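Standup notes
- HV: blocked on the assembly model, inputs below
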Amino acid sequence: MFVRFFQFFFMLILSATIVPAFGQWNLMELQQLYPNSNYMVLEKIDTLFIYFENDSLKAKESNFERKMYLNNQAYQYTKESIGFSKLAGVQNINAATLLPVKKGRYKTVQVEEITEKDEFESGIFHDDSKSKNFSYPLLQEGAQTVLSYDRIIKEIRFIGGNYFAGLAPILLETYYVVVDKNVELGYQLFNIDSSAFTFSVEETAKKKIYKWTLKTIPPLKLEENSLAVRYFMPHILVYVKSYTLKGERHTVLSNLSDLNQWYYNFIDEVQQEDSTVSRLAHEITATYASEIDKVKAVFYWVQDHVKYIAFEDGYGGFIPRKPSEVCQKRYGDCKDMANLIRSMLVAVGVDVKLCWLGSRDLPYKYSEIATPAVDNHMIAVYFDQGKALFLDATNNYVPFGLPTAFIQGKEALVNIDSTNYKLFEVPVVDASINSMRDSVFLFFDASAKLRGKGKVHYSGLLRASVAEYIDGLNKEELIRFFIEYFKKGNNKFIITDLHLENLEDRDNDLIVHYTLELDDYVTTYEDEMYINLNLEKPFKGSIVDSNRVHPVENDFKSSLNYVIHLEIPQGYKVVYTPENFSFSDGHLDVALLYKTNSNELIYQQSYKKDFLLLEKDYFRQWNTVINSLGTNYKEAITFKKIE
Amino acid sequence: MRSIFLSLFLGVSFSCFPAEVWHKNYDWDSIPQQFFYAEKELIIKEFQSIEFIADSTQKIEQYTLNHKIIWVNSDDAINRNNRIYIPLLSSDEIIKQQARVINSKGEIRVLSNENIQEAKDESTGSVFKYFALEGLDKGSHIEYLSFIKSTASYNGTNLTVQMDIPIHKFEFELMSPKEMIFTSKSYNGLDSLQLDTSIEGKNRLFLSQDSIDGLQYEKSSNYQNYLMRLTYKLKECKAPLYLSPVDFTLAASAFCSTIYDVPLKREKKLIKKLLKQTGITDEMDEQTKVRTIENYLKNRFSILPTKTIPGLNLEAMLDNNISSEKGITAMFALLFEKAGITHELVLTSDRFEIVFDTSFESYTVLREFLIYLPNIQSFLAPAIKYRRLNEIPSGWRNNYGLFMRAERSKHGVSGTGSFKFIPPMESVENQHNITINAKLDDDLSAVKMTMELEMTGEYASSFQPYYTDMDDELIDKTNRYILKSIIEDAKIDSVSSENGGVVNFGLKPFYVKGKMQSEMTLEKAGKKVLFKVGELIGPQLEMYLNEDRKLPIEEEYKRQFNHTITVEFPKEYTVLNLEELNRDISYSEDGEKAFWFKSVYTFEGNRLEIKINEVYNEMTLPASKIADYRKVINAAADFNKVVLVLVKK
């Protein structure tokens, strides 16, 4: 009964829109309107159906799009791929090329062969994502393609929503949600200027039809170091709050409590105690008296012994594996590691909870929309006298007590039990914790060459990122790495020897001791020597393009401090040191300081980068600061021979 | 529980073996040996056995046994080895596949069959088996054993043995029925295969070598070519088996026949029509004809990156405008033939993948399609869309190839083949030249300049051809990117390019021009001004680290740089140390200059002109000459550091 309605409805949409809407467009007009686009989407219609079948709630989405190719680059778009997985299957793919024959008339060439492929998603070792692939025949300038397919959504909580943008311009995009009247629908709009949208709700005897339409959508502008697209792409998230069946109301995602309860089902079973894990946990924590030391010991053990390998297969993407299994396999994904940490600590009497949260790529908050779209990550959390400590062992190098960079500032849903939960905000790590402190002693050797000794400390998330780079490198490779990483002065900078301190000891600074040579850096003329002591120029060229649209994202706040002690060469005196410079505005603090002692000249550069997002309003001021820094970077000191 | 499961798995699979497969009972030690090494990662043992078996219909099957034990002793080594991917073809049959981890405590964990994942791609027929290894810690052994039945490949197979980590024991064997006689060649110090005839009915070639060192990559080298490797092939085959051994004479004839044999009248007509469509005329000289045909075919046809699809159905190609590498090669050959353009087909290899060894014929080096035009002494890469006449990939040059000429007779098409050298381009054909007219601001805060960058050959190849398919926005972005790669802090006022587009590639130089200013090239020390004039030629390659050199130097191509920089200084300033600008470093072989860097300046009024000429007329040099090579390479990088001191008059 329903199916017939569904097909009829869909045909109606097609017949109603295609013919009149496209008669008016011709290739030349579109080429003139979009000279920088190789193709465009003439129309996109996505329809989500939520309906009852055999007394259970089902969801299905029908997608249709029609594209037109505007130039001889059409061949680049020959290949089409539609992704699917166990929880979101794909059916009824229909695709064809429409070849222009005569004015306004097209010949249809159907796609015949569709092949299937298992896909590898980046960062995930194994999942159930697959794709249907085919080629549009004979693509050429002026040709159109049409594509329609159905998506079968197996889990009502994953109905998702619709994105009103893409990499090509879209003339007209319509999103329908056709829902049974006994279903209570929730939705939320993101990055949508409601004036540009038309929205209507229509009711029939049994259905409610929501319709959103947006016209003339420009292509997405993607920029480097920018927020993820969901932060600025217009989109709608749709979810089922509840439904009534045979007079009884069932909640689905009516509030956060529902989500917590549903998620609880995934973790309930794997929270059982396990003797192997318990034995191991006692072993690891035996020598520690305080609770926090036990937490730290377990966290470091998991970081060291369990490698990150992600499996996401159907609901397997939500259910952690048994802790004993993870322990034996020595690998797991985020939820496996989180649950292992939790169960080990619970075994030794420490109360640790699991929590869900989204990475910084996702713009949503549980407190605004309580659906699975909010999160993509799970970690463990420990309450140290009421203060939440987030334990994310997916990064092997992050010091205990700090969150990983990509979850800073995000809301976490902490599961207490099947009915109780708490929301916490993951802290943003302070710039002073993520620090780099480099001190170099420079001198001229007997043949007047610049030589030196240095020591650099890394802490916090900066420590974690350097440790990750250098893990597994032998001494030669370390030297090569740090020559490139430091880049002091010019490319004749060489590290002749180097050793590390505290690489394994995450509670302390990672220290790199090195000796260096720097040739052809000093300019000499007659009795004078000129040296630019800005051996590093960390903000050189950090100008933000004034045409940039989106804010600049920073992985973490940080503070950098470089000190150079330059021995004044025998028989010389300092005749010129540049002026000091400082600046501070809450986003970026800078201080460049020169000081002369009896036998050495000290130059200190310090920076504090105190933001995760550089907003557009601030670009102009940022560029002014960077320009003045640039001027200061150009200053050299002068030594003169004592007569 | 686990072991029962495993034996069940093996039990099922053994039924696939024909009785005579030599290693059908091969297995790993039931109690594995444990070793300890100080190294972070190495191969304890690698054994590879390839056996050819004739089935009852005389069809040859290949059975490949692989047994490997890896030592991992660092987090990094664990992360590199804890996931195993095995690429297969859909026709391959896995007979046995097992893996186990022996951790540092000696505990054994065997991979269970259910944990082996599979990924298929129906369109290519490729299959991946992959799995993650369980229980790995530092000091673990990973043991992996596989037995795969596949379509036999005996016409030249290259096996690279050495890698960047040491191999303690390497064993290889090649087994075949008595009728199949194989020959092999070992390279770079790998032992030769020995013949063992002690097994009845079988020939066995084998080698066993201890302690193969890891070879580290070095820049400016042909790393792949210096790894220990071997190539084997069928040399002779006796009745009752009828297999064709490797024979380049036969191969040349067969190849010519597949390319030129167009038996149908209809197809002949199509070729005639296609030639007309290319727009060539009798008045054109040969080079113009060739370029016209090349532009037409490469513009019209999409070329699928596959060598296997025959794609020689001319009608289908013309209908769909889609072709395979071989298909478009055939179209070139047929059009050239029809147009009376003398040409030879060439099959060769990229020498950075595998060098074409003329002393050991093997089909594995017949990888890339080329066409040689003897009248204009030029090469053409038919299957590469963004290459043009003469501008073939440089890795295919300085290498040999199998050159083939077709011969038509009333019986059909045959052909003859011979080895010939594909010469490298001369340095004059790969140029990267910068012309700068600069003027220092009166307040000496910035250098204003116009820059013209001229690129030919390999330098143009990364940009010029692609301009055909770029929109204005992308062209502008690319032009800016190119100029910024020379002057990093350039503030660009305007930029343009000339001769962009694939039709100009190899015919006209590619130019990018811009007006810009740089601030970072001027520094101040009190009242003196430091002008970093050396940075105007852009960051130069350097070899400052005096590391020991093992591998000979081998560059992709010969090249030269010709720069002219003029600078106008404010009249009230004197430039103090101009003599820094004169440099002359060279390396000669047999009294002839092979590489040099030379810079000369002239100064008149307040105008400085610097001429730089850096030339590499050789592309290979023995490792012992590394110091000479570094001297010239570093001379350019040293020039980057020239700073002129300016003082007010």
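- HV (later): unblocked. Chain B touches chain A through 56 residues (CB under 8 Å). The two ends of chain B are 92 Å apart (CA to CA).
- Next: hand off to the docking folks.
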